[in-house]
Amino acid sequence: MRLAGQDLVVGYDDRTVIDGLSVEIPSGQLTVIIGPNACGKSTLLRALGRLLKPRGGSVLLDGELLHELPPRQVAQRLGVLPQSPLVPEGVTVADLVARGRQPHQRWWQQWSPADQEAVKTALADADIVELADRPVEALSGGQRQRVWIAMALAQQTEALLLDEPTTFLDVAHQVEVLRLMRRLQQGGRTVVAVLHELNQAARYADHVIAMKDGRIVAAGPPADVITAPLITDVFALDCTVIPCPVTATPLVIPNP
Amino acid sequence: MHGAVRRGGVVVLGVLVLLAAVAASLTVGSRHIPLAEALDALLHPAPTEAALIVRELRVPRTLVGLEVGAALALAGVIMQALTRNPLAEARVLGVSAGAATGVVCAIAFAGAASLASWIWFGLAGAAVAGALVFAVAARTRDGSGPVSLALSGAAIDAGLGAVIYGILSIDAATFEQYRFWVVGSIAGRTPAMAGQVAPFLLVGLVLAVVSARGLDALALGDDVARGLGHRIQRVRLAAAVAAIVLTGAAVALAGPIAFVGLAVPHLARALVGTAHRWVLPLSALLGAALVLFADVLGRVITPPGEVPAGVVTALVGAPVLLWLVRRARVVTA
Fold first, then answer.
1. Which domain holds residue A39?
2. Predicted pLDDT of residue B333
3. Which of A49, A199, B120, B141 has its CA 20 to 30 A from that of B308?
């Protein structure tokens, strides 16, 4: 699974957010995109995930033009979890996760043993087997997020793109989602996520992409990217970066 | 829990309820005809009075009830999904008003005086109004999304309403005929009329089935639907055409029978959850059953006269919807 963008120009209506950006997503790794609000990180993720059609440049999935492939075929290879999906009233966890099987179904063949198996595995991987029959609207934010990830898992794609999967979660639930992302990467998937928490990015990512004003400022292993000068530049935040006493990954401490 | 077995059981129950409704529709009326006799009349055409009543009156009426009830309920499910609005029904996409405008114009300007001739005008009016609503909504920023569909539908509905009442207010003779159509009834329709709308219903049915998965995905938001590999404009177009064709055919045939499209989808979802591959078939069954039961009830509550089905559906449907609302409140509180 190789996912890359070349000379991307992406925007909404009359506003161009990204203008001439090229990016390479390392295969089989956990990539985290960081950057200040409105820097274009979600826009980049949406373009890579085929949610947004670039005005210029191209997204390549294994060397093929992503936006010219049949959408259903893309959805079999690339799972995307957008920022704020809707929860229809009365839908159960199992029902919602089952919808992740859609790219593998046809309207005349709506449910198969393979679908059943994939949903079971996804529920287990996201650790929500016991929630299967609960209505989604009755769950906590952390549980809900795992349900959405489970839906993307049921899609059984090689790559998974997650837009701010930890936002609105308390710190324990954030860590839970990060660990799940890590397990998925270790299981062989390519995982890309937009995160706000720099120290979490430093700790869990294999590869960090730092963005500012629609451009990529730096990309590489956390220790190379998350440095005091770079964070100061990208976030306009005066800070000190020390090695984390527990994991030795970079730890960002805003200066008083 | 909504296991496939349980949901299958509910659908089977729905079939039984519908069969009961059909049986009632064939037997109950100003003259009661026992079921055995009614079935006998179906199989062996004899020139008895009972056989004539069954074959000439009750069978066509039952067929029309099946068509109209199923079509309105399916269209209601689709419109509620497309607009993400639990109150959506035939009126929402302006289709009902389109059909009514067609019928009014047929009476006032074309001198059409029979139910049979109104069907085509009703269908044409529904198609024009529905196409207009969708075309306007598709050109907005959210591309025929819930809000633009609901708003352009409301605008067309209001505009056409003005046209209808404008014509009726200056043309008493037209109003005299129109009022029989506008209450909504399945009485007095011929088998030929039932046959005329059948192809439209079939097209709508196929499109509804094809859209089922797309509607499930759209319920999770446009981005999720795209991520699941749907071309969302195409899903919306197919579903909207299904809703327009189904509503147009049903309204042209029986007038704007209220409440079926609103209440039945809620009942179906309460029974089998939100997945459209279950909600659509169950709604079709229950919608048909509701219209038939309403019609049967209308035959007997004010003897020797009849109350049209369109009046009774709301009478029967309102308590059901109230019960659902109450139940929902108990669950979420």
1. 3-254
2. 25
3. B120
C-alpha B259/C-alpha B256 separation (Å) is 9
Q: Which of A50, A82, A91 has the CB atom closest to B273's CB atom? A: A91
Q: What is the CATH number of the domain that holds A84?
A: 3.40.50.300
Contact A186, A9 (CB under 8 A): no
| Alpha-carbon dihedral A26, A28, A32, A38, rounded to 10 degrees | 60
Question: Can you tell me the distance from the alpha carbon of B249 to that of A173, in angstroms, rounded to the nearest whole number?
Answer: 52
A145 CA to chain B: closest CA distance, Å?
A: 13
pLDDT, tens digit, 9 for 90 and up, residues B25-41: 999 988 888 888 888 88
Judge: B141–A85 Cβ closer than 8 Å, yes or no: no
Is A50's Cβ below 8 Å from some Cβ in B? yes
CA distance A111 to chain B (A): 10
pLDDT tens-digit series, residues B219-252: 999 999 999 999 999 999 999 999 999 999 999 9
Q: How far apart are CA A174 and CA A193, in angstroms?
A: 13
Contact (CB<8Å) A102/B226: no
Number of domains, chain A: 1
From CA B72, how far away is CA B324, in angstroms rounded? Answer: 19
CA distance B61 to B194: 9
Cα separation, B96 vs B112, in Å, equals: 19
Q: Among B210, B226, B235, B325, which would you mutate to test the A interface (most chain A Cβ atoms within 10 Å of its Cβ)?
A: B226
Domains of chain B: 4-332 (1.10.3470.10)
The Cα B248–Cα A53 span in angstroms is: 36
